[in-house]
């Protein structure tokens, strides 16, 4: 008993700790993590929406080209346009000298993602309860995961996909709860209805008997008067009979009221179930248009839902209402994407209507109009699938072995919990369970099916598996909650792992680039009469939208040399510097590159005045720090730390 009390207190502490961790996570959004995880963080969402809403210079990635876009514009706009419009409005009011800046844009656009990441927390809790896993440990794992702190608060389409998967899990369990609740209410309702029916029959029988008695009393009234021995019914008996009648009527009325309340509850539960089914259809379509890989993550949960939807009627309703919700959202998303990408769509529709109004109506006209309108529609998932089915296209992004997801990316996401995850998976697959229906086999299938399916495609990144995070963590929690010896060690290693990964992905990896852009934006805005030339070398692509440049202004130029050879960098810088010398107007040339590559540039600029400053920390795999040289004592520790910086080289 004492051990149970200790465990209960420990779990309550875990619950409080989860809440504290979520609060701290929001603080790291309001005081933003400076790191830059992947170019898609900006170029598949923020760069496009900020360019449109704020009307600033931006780079439109190939995924958003008008001829054959592979990304729906709906979700970036739904999540990012409200905070950006809000910033734009405040900026227009000039409230307290407020000005839109790179940092404000980053904070405003990460906040919506931080809020929707809580859906993943809720889904983890529901999964744990459904599969009889300790929900306190499960939610603690989620709230302390570096994935929730970094990836899920960034503007990735994978983050949206993860939240839609979490949302569909919540909807599925809600639907199953509605079915079970409706079944119980139906049983109670039928029992009450039979009781009311029986009471009505008893009342009718009683009334009939009462009428017959009154008739008999009326016929024998004269004989009864002559017979002095007959005992007349007293007034008390008559009063008691009236009270009994009133009591029966009251009970019957109460039964009818309870029956009406039950019927109302039954109708409400039924409507809730139908709404839930339609929402599932809506989310399936939304997830598919956001990233077609959503179907890989939602397939097993949907099968689970159909399997446990008891009765043929419920399964038919699942199909009908889910199909209706999917159809509605499909039409809306296609319409919005078409309006955004195809600027000539309304002209096409107008032409068709004009021809119709002029009386040129025929079957041939209908066929031509239909083909014209159909060819004008933008269906981004179809373009996405066509692109990714071509291995040559994937090769441009990097090809990986098919085992990368299972042997590299999965351990990278959950670290030390990989072992408990594998143990639980083996146990579910090979050990017989008394409760086959709700066994962990379903949870294992939800986790492994998308991993196996996505492993077929040769381009594999860790963020592609983020939607399965709740399933991974609940499976690991199943093992951890079932052991006593070694639990604290696992929790400690898990904490150290996530602290390290939060530092790397939140505060170290390409971490100086966004702050540098913010400072550069202030420099450009403070000297509008100068010509500014910025060159980026061996960094991630700089998001142009964070510089908040008016497209009509021609006083700034950005060159992203990526990982070009050193001679290309030197030639580009010397050419730009020479142009600045020839130009009599003010000219500011800045080069942004990792500290490890700075010496390669400055030695070729001896005939120019060069000023070098550093912004730290900044870790770049394109120009990694000299770890081996430091290990072999070729450089000092201070020199090694300087390698973890981004240099800003100003050439005059």
UniProtKB/TrEMBL annotation:
It is a multi-pass membrane protein. One of its GO terms (biological process) is GPI anchor biosynthetic process. Pathway: Glycolipid biosynthesis; glycosylphosphatidylinositol-anchor biosynthesis. Its EC number is 2.4.1.-. GO terms for molecular function: alpha-1,2-mannosyltransferase activity. Its main location: endoplasmic reticulum. This is Mannosyltransferase. It comes from Biomphalaria pfeifferi.
């Amino acid at each position: 008993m004492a051990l149970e009390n200790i465990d209960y207190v420990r779990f309550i502490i875990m619950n409080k700790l989860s809440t504290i961790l979520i609060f701290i996570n929001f603080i790291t959004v309001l005081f933003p993590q400076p790191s830059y995880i992947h170019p898609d963080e900006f170029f598949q969402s923020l760069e496009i929406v900020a360019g449109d809403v704020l009307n600033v210079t931006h780079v439109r990635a190939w995924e958003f080209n008008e001829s054959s876009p592979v990304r729906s514009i709906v979700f970036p706009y739904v999540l990012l346009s409200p905070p950006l419009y809000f910033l734009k409005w405040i900026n227009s009011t000039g409230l307290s000298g407020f000005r839109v800046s790179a940092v404000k844009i980053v904070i405003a656009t990460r906040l919506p993602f931080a809020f929707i990441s809580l859906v993943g927390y809720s889904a983890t809790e529901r999964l744990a309860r459904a599969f009889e896993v300790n929900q306190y440990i499960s939610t603690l794992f989620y709230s302390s995961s570096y994935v929730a702190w970094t990836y899920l608060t960034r503007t990735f389409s994978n983050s949206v996909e993860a939240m839609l998967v979490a949302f569909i899990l919540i909807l599925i369990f809600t639907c199953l709860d509605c079915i079970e609740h409706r079944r119980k209410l139906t049983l109670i309702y039928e029992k009450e209805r039979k009781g009311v029916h029986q009471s009505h029959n008893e009342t009718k029988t009683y009334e009939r008997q009462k009428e017959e008695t009154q008739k008999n009393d009326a016929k024998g009234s004269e004989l009864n008067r002559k017979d002095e021995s007959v005992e007349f019914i007293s007034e008390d008996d008559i009063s008691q009979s009236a009270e009994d009648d009133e009591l029966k009527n009251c009970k019957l009325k109460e039964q009818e009221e309870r029956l009406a309340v039950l019927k109302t509850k039954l109708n409400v539960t039924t409507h809730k179930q139908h709404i839930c089914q339609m929402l599932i259809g809506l989310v399936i379509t939304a997830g598919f248009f956001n990233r077609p890989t959503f179907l890989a993550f939602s397939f097993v949960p949907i099968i689970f839902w159909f399997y446990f939807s008891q009765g043929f009627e419920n399964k038919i309703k699942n199909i009908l209402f889910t199909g209706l919700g999917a159809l509605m959202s499909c039409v809306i998303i296609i319409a919005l994407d078409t309006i955004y990408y195809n600027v000539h769509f309304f002209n096409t529709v107008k032409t068709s209507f004009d021809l119709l109004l002029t009386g040129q109506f025929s079957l041939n006209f209908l066929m031509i109009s239909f083909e014209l309108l159909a060819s004008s529609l933008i269906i981004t998932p179809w373009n996405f699938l066509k692109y990714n089915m071509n291995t040559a296209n994937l090769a441009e992004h990097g090809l990986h072995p098919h085992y990368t997801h299972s042997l590299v990316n999965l351990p990278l996401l959950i670290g030390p919990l990989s072992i408990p995850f594998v143990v639980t998976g083996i146990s579910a697959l090979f050990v017989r369970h008394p409760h086959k229906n709700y066994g962990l086999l379903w949870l294992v299938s939800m986790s492994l099916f998308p991993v196996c399916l996505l492993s077929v495609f040769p381009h594999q990144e860790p963020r592609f598996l983020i939607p399965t995070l709740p399933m991974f963590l609940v499976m690991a929690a199943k093992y951890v909650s079932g052991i006593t010896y070694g639990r604290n060690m696992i929790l400690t290693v898990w904490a150290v792992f996530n602290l390290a990964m939060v530092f790397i992905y939140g505060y170290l990896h390409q971490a100086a680039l966004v702050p540098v852009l913010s400072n550069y934006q202030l420099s450009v805005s403070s000297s509008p009469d100068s010509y500014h030339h910025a060159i980026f070398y061996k960094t991630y692509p700089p998001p142009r939208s964070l510089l908040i440049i008016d497209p009509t202004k021609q006083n700034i130029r950005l060159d992203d040399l990526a990982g070009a050879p050193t001679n290309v960098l030197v030639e580009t810088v010397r050419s730009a510097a020479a142009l600045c010398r020839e130009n009599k107007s003010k000219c500011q040339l800045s080069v942004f590159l990792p500290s490890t590559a700075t010496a390669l540039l400055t030695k070729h600029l001896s005939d120019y005045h060069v000023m070098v400053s550093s912004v730290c920390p900044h870790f770049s795999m394109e120009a990694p720090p000299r770890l081996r040289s430091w290990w072999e004592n070729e450089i000092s520790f201070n020199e090694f730390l300087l390698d973890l910086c981004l240099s800003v080289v100003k050439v005059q």
